[in-house]
Design a protein that fits this description.
By secondary structure, the chain is mainly alpha-helical. It has one domain. Helices cover 49% and strands 10% of the residues. It is built from six helices and four strands, in the order H-E-H-E-H-H-H-H-E-E. The strands form two sheets. Strands 1-2 form a two-stranded parallel ribbon. The chain starts with 12 loop residues before the first helix and ends with a strand. 12% of the residues are buried. The C terminus is likely disordered.
Amino acid sequence: MDVVEASIRRRLPDIIIEDALAMQRKYTCQMWFVETVQFQEMLRTELMKRAHQAGLSMPCFPVQPIADKNLRIERLQPPMKAGLIRLHNSQKTLIDQLQQWPNAAHDDGPDCLEMLHTHALEKAGGVFTGGGISVG
């Protein structure tokens, strides 16, 4: 899995939506995964509504993390080490958060990356097996 863009910064919800719509116009993503904890469910539904109004197809799948965040982030290590998750050098914030984890001030990037990896495999027909990928 190649991470093409990692936009990690504080933004108002309207800015997040506009940025996501711009990314959809640029990349025409087949799937979006949106964490639906607290207000984020509203963000997900508003994103789909505005995408529709803009004439964009933007399927936003809800994601609710179940396992402990630290355990989920630790699950990234084997596929990253095996080269199954690749980052670009320009993704400095994400790389810094991964390198400094678990002592980083923020872990939103690694948390998001883990959810993306897990759910992309699930929707693409692969199964995460705790260190490898089995495609079936």
